[in-house]
Amino acid sequence: MMDDKIPQQKKPLIYYYIIAMIVLLLLNIFVFPMLTGMQVQEVGYNEFRKMLEEDRVTAVEKDDTMYVFAATDDRGVERYYKTGLWDDPELTQLLLDKGISFTEVIPTQASPLLSFLVSWLIPIMLFIFLGRMLSKRMMNGMGNAMSFGKSNAKIYADTATGKTFADVAGQDEAKEALTEIVDFLHNPGKYAEIGANLPKGALLVGPPGTGKTLLAKAVAGEAHVPFFSISGSEFVEMFVGMGAAKVRDLFKQAAEKAPCIVFIDEIDTIGKKRDGAGFSGNDEREQTLNQLLSEMDGFDGTKGVVILAATNRPESLDPALLRPGRFDRRIPVELPDLAGREAILRVHCKDVRMEQNIDLNVIARATAGASGAELANIINEAALRAVRMGRSLVSQEDLQESVEVIIAGYQRKNAVISEHEKRIIAYHEIGHALVAAKQTNSAPVQKITIVPRTSGALGYTMQVEEGETVLLSREEAFNKLATLTGGRAAEEVVFNSMTSGASNDIEQLTRMARAMVTRYGMSDKFGMVALEQVTNQYLGGDSSLACSQETASQIDEEVMKLIEQAHEKALGILRENRDKMDELAAYLLEKETITGDEFMAILEKE
Ligand code: ADP
Ligand code: MG
Ligand code: ZN
């Protein structure tokens, strides 16, 4: 991710102003009066008259509010005094008689130029200065609020992202498609000669964590052309019209820097289908989308601006975005296969110190369906575990354990489980394993454990496929159902009771059986009819029924029938192998965790 670093927020300017004001206020109230007060002493008018009579006064000055006079004090030192104005008509005569100099201060007439400066120009300049400082600060701090319409797409030139195709493992098709684009940017002449047009845009589509963003960064690393990257959510911002302005700005920048690549991550945030219904926020988004569409039409392909975008919700994108001339190339970035997983693990192992004899293939086989991000996480968890254990190298065991942490959570070593319940759990797990082992076409058991996990799992049986299969036959699917019912079936056979422990099995079981009926065309009753549609392929795979109410209830019946058959099969297997089940369960109870090999050894022993 290319994240937006927000600069460290300094104390707001207003804070300093307030402090300055308080200091000034304190000076005004306490300090200045003290200074001036020390020099001029205030006295009563009678005192003034008395000093006059005593001939101690040497000079008098009158201003608007008081008399200020100089007089010698008791010790013969001349000092300044002041007193309030008093309506005293005899004063003038008295002063004249005594020959004391007296005067009224002429109010100072400030020069008009100076007063203009002081009262107008300086405050205005002050305000302009403050305003600039504040706005600068706001631009830095709040980012987009004040930077009207300026896109903050960052420029990534050359290897600024530090990623290359070597960092992306297992996405060979996607890499190939992108290599072509990179190549075009390097020498467009080759393509122009033949008359081929560069695709204007390519859309990376796939489930979360498969490396779409990573691929785009790698393109930047490989292309050696400027790379503008922006996330869809950055378009959706505070002011109406901002999104559109940003798009405009982005493309203007891009056109100046051509040839270059523009990458819009999570494009579904702005590229959603436009529809009539919706709340007010839609207006803004629609404007942004319209702007994007028209910009994409606007620039000509020969300039060498290529737009990449990534999303995991392609079905929600507006069709206008997907038509030729816009994102006319769609690059699937799917979950990695076995070889891909191993390659991804290898890439992430590069920077981790490992023991010599690490077998990544085992880990790859145990992580069917994991995304690149999850695999990266597994390696990191293993490294953390090694540190926790005080080792300096990561071991195979760390990797194994971290796979389980990702699947089922951490071990709950001190969970209190009664002996009786432990027995039930042991039989339940052995039930799964035994049913799996006694069927052909089902993946071998790799590990059985009854150590509880933080995810709530009380135990589990891990099955790992030998290699990779891309097809699921009807037998295999049915065997999976039987294996999943095996846990509950064991409880029934041994304890003649049922527990809530099978709830997760039941959930998986039902989903599987439903898919067999409604999507894989594996039921006798319906045959090859699609009764369900997957609506959200890359995000969980929700599906919605596409049939009548009546058919829906028949589907339910069919699903129940299928599960019942699987259940019967499991019960049969377990009853037949009751002795082995007891032996295995006792062994598991004692050891808590056993490997697939130990399991098979006991099973095959005469
Ligand atoms: P998304 O497809 O959701 O954009 P990202 O590109 O953000 O996924 O991938 C997240 C992280 O997963 C990457 O930073 C990288 O560490 C890891 N990863 C995902 N796919 C791969 C891959 N094919 N090869 C190597 N690492 C991968
Ligand atoms: Mg991403
Ligand atoms: Zn179970």
Characterization of the model:
This protein has 606 residues and is α/β, with parallel strands linked by helices. The chain folds into 4 domains: 38-104, 2-Layer Sandwich (Signal recognition particle alu RNA binding heterodimer, srp9/1); 154-332, Rossmann fold; 338-408, Helicase, Ruva Protein, domain 3, CATH 1.10.8; 419-604, Peptidase M41 (Methane Monooxygenase Hydroxylase, Chain G, domain 1), CATH 1.20.58. Helix content is 51%, strand content 12%. The chain contains 22 helices and 16 strands. It has helices at residues 13-39, 45-53, 91-98, 112-142, 172-186, 188-194, 212-223, 232-235, 242-257, 268-271, 281-298, 319-322, 338-349, 360-366, 372-388, 396-408, 419-437, 474-495, 503-518, 549-576, 578-591, 596-604; strands at 40-42, 57-62, 66-72, 78-84, 101-104, 154-156, 201-205, 227-231, 260-265, 305-311, 329-332, 445-449, 460-463, 532-534, 543-545, 593-595. The strands form 4 sheets. Strands 6-8-9-10-7-11 form a 6-stranded mixed β-sheet. A hairpin with an 8-residue loop joins strand 14 (532-534) and strand 15. The longest helix is centred in the N-terminal third of the chain and has 31 residues, at 112-142. The chain is elongated. The protein binds adenosine-5'-diphosphate, magnesium ion (MG) and zinc ion. Adenosine-5'-diphosphate binds next to helix 7, helix 13 and helix 15.
